[in-house]
Amino acid sequence: MGNPTASLAQVDFALIGHQESWRAAADVLAVLRGPERTPLPDDEIRDILPWIPPRAVCHVEIASVTGTKAHGLYIDSFIPPDRLADAHLLDNTARVRGAAACAIQAGAKVVSLGGFSSILIEGNFNHLPERKSTVFTTGNTLTVAFIIEGVRKMSALQGLNLGTSTLLIVGATGDVGSGCARCLAHGVKRVQLHARNPERLRRLAAQLEAEGARVEMATDLRQFSAPADVVICAASLASSSLLLGNICPEAIICDAGYPKNLSPGAEMPRARVFFGGLGQVTGGLTFIPDFHGILNRHPFPDVVHGCMLEGMALALEHRFEPFSQGRGFITPDRVYEIKIIAARHGISLAPLYNTEGSCNKDQQQKINHSDCR
Questions:
Q1: What are the tens digits of pLDDT across the range 99-145?
Q2: Contact 310/338 with Cβ under 8 angstroms?
Q3: Residue 163, exposed/middle/buried by CB under 10 A (0-12, 13-18, 19+)?
Q4: Of 62, 63, 54, 61, whose CA–CA distance to 28 is shortest?
Q5: Which of the chain's ends, N or C, has fewer CB atoms near its CB within 10 Å?
Q6: pLDDT, tens digit, 9 for 90 and up, residues 203-212
Q7: Could you please report the per-residue DSSP string of 283-326?
Q8: Is the backbone of residue 16 left (phi > 0), alpha (psi -120 to 50) or beta?
């Protein structure tokens, strides 16, 4: 299947990720095998994928609106989509370490940890191999920036006043969830924090209350005193299984999970759901071989998860540093800083969309005619 690192003299950045569905994994394998080969049956893919070691699968080039470019690699850890649960923690952590070793060997200057990669490491970069001159970032600060901007944009589209709203954050004590809480808690009427670990919930709630926010916390979504107007789903779930209970009928819901948090069976016909944490590259994005529409499976062109875009933005800025270091370090000042860095290079909030298409009717025609390849 070739060696994507062989012809790349300079590696400014590397992106470590995994596929969230078997369909996506099958598409990646199909490109790697080449168009002349017959696609593998689903059962063979499920048998083969767990035996594929982490490896670079393609070159990535991103162009800034300033005229500069950065060159990198996408490295797939090949974590099977049905093995994201805690029972596979050791094996998955080993896969992330293997992918990190590939990035280090390639000489990458800054590496973004996408999806469950950052969750498995939890910001403890000492779990990674000896790094030489390579630095790692979880990429979560830019993810938080895009979530917040998306919530504000959707609220404006729906005529919702955030200042008088109740905000629920599911997965509130994780790196992304707690970052959203720090940035938004003081701009809403009430913030509701939901997570599985009560001690972490208490610490976060105490921090926000000390800064003047009105806070509720619960490990059970049914325990909150009032329905939420705005929901941010940022839980580390192995599958799309979240069912929301006490929310307003026309609530705004940002699903920022990878895999997505919301269960396909959730019945919320009047809710305004959008997929959060996504940015769009306006300067240009190139994959060699061509993985457009496979590594970035979105209805708009050159849309990428914020965690990946953070490493690319840092490379374009020539700031090779561990900008996002793990749970508890995302602050409003850091969110603003990375957002400005990204914007300087033409990386901005992606158009808001969900499974039904654009959340802005004026953008629907752009979806229908965009070249998503």
A1: 999 999 999 999 999 999 988 876 677 778 877 799 999 999 999 99
A2: yes
A3: exposed
A4: 54
A5: C
A6: 999 999 999 9
A7: S-EEEES--BTTTB--SSTTEEEHHHHHHHHHHHHT--S----S
A8: beta
